[in-house]
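**User:** Here is a favour to ask of a fellow structure person. Please take any protein you like and set down a full record of it. No explanation is needed for now; the record alone will do.

**Assistant:**
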Amino acid sequence: MPKILVVDDNPAIHTDFRKVLCVPPDVDAQAALSAAQALLLGELPAGVGRPAFDVDFAGQGREGLAMVQRADAEGSPYSLAFVDMRMPPGWDGLETIEHLWAADPYLQIVICSAHSDYDWLEVMRRIGHTDQLLVLRKPFEPIEVLQCAAALCRKWENERLMRSRVADLERSAAASAAGLEAANCQLRHQATHDGITGLPNRVLLDDRLEQAVVRADRAGQAFALMLCDLGRLKLINESLGHRAGDQLLQAAAQRLCSVVRPVDTVARINGDKFALLIGAAVNPADVETVARRAIDALIAPIEIAGISVHTAPNIGIAIHPQDGGAQDTLFARADAALYSAKQRGQGAVQCYAPGMNIGDPDKVRLESDLHRALALQQFQLYYQPKVDTLTGAVHSAEALIRWHHPERGLVSPAEFIPLAEECGLIDAIGRWVAAEACRQTRAWQTSGMPALRIAINLSAAQFRAGDLVETMRHALNSATLSARFLEVELTESALMSDPEKSIGVLEQLSEMGILISVDDFGTGYSSMSYLRRLPLDKLKIDRSFINEITARADDASIVTAIVSLAHSLRLKVVAEGVETAAQLEFLKGLGCDQYQGYLFSRPLPPADFERLMRGEQARRMAFMEDEALRTQSKLTARSRPV
């Protein structure tokens, strides 16, 4: 029920308003209001005598103000106030209205006056032009009072509803704006921070590095940039899953943050590489101390999934301005120092020094050149003889790839083969090696040279590829070369990465007639149970054991054991890296079958190798079919020459 306040100093007027506005207790309030509206239209619903309102009365303006304030405080404000113009000895009507609107600016007002001596224009100037004010002249008719009450109460209710909806819209807009701002903050954070560790990413690191350069140049101070490589993340991801890898990164991030100051920056760049930006670095010794603390923190085992995981961290350091003024230069030199540290082994810390610029830019250029090398025919095979230890006869040789770079000269396989594996070129290079070795071997045969078996090296990536057998078959068929003149060499690591698959692939190669050798035997891990199941023909002893075979008892014992093991498995043994007569005599005493090394010949280009072979005595060049020089494959029944 709408609430109405009557402010008049005449009690009789109170009685009149009560008769007009109040409804008996048994009449529904909403029905009363509807009756008042119908009354405005000249219709009165049946059963309702008069509309009614909740009416309060005040004799003076101050009393009315107190009632309005109390109603607002209680949350049930008045909709309308009837105010008499003259109420001696207190406030008059205008002063009362001013106080009422100061307390409740939404209150509707009806001025009640029996006097005509008011200048209504002056009244309007004093209280302002407003749609919240009506004037009712005394004496008034009941219908006039009801009409004013019904119309102004409905107007007050509509305005309140509108204000409520506007407030709701404003709150909704404010909430949406706050949500958008929070989303924007989240997006900005995601754009500048790593999602796994929460550390700054490369974007934010670059910004802070740029600021550090500006501040250092202005203040004449030095600062350091460290690049840290965790190592072993790939192993953890592959062995324990990427969730475990993420936990490793998070633990490493916490440990790195613990060794620097709050003003320093720790960022994750990519993969397992982190950066530490150390401000106001005094000298390299202080920076190295921080780096050592970081290494010590990272080397400690990290518990992941109930397993103590160990990292293999390295740190490279570049200091501004002595190692570079521009941020790109500083970053590149810190990377070069990191590369140098990794070459020294895990746990190494390396400050940049001149001459370390053989980093990524050089590697990228070398990779670019490598992509063109095949098309430009820059690769060549060199050949190193394999010599019979007892007779000195040469029946086979190893084909070794060389890269004749137009600017760098002869590039070592140790430099470009790992790069070829990284960039996916190793398969194409491997196919070329197989085809070229078969072609050259066949060409020597047709030129009248005694038949030789040529061995080629297979990388782990080639061996894992599904087309190895077809690649070998295509190379042999293209050169019209018999498979017994081809030998493949694989490392222990390549064979043991997937032993069951290795057995299947090697059986197919062996069935074709290709000989199979295990290269660098003794440097990897071999399961004896698998070793006896693999269709192998030869074991090649790694040169690291041959180097000091006559000086170190341990190396001599290892070589002796390998020769004994191979012969017990009916395998031939080849020793690599034989450079002295003493080494050869020792191998002869053990019964080693073949050797290769600088003692007989270094790897030679095809023309020089051919001259070497033609210069040998005919008996050493003859391809002997004697049973003693045959290699018995475990899979095929026929014997094959050594």
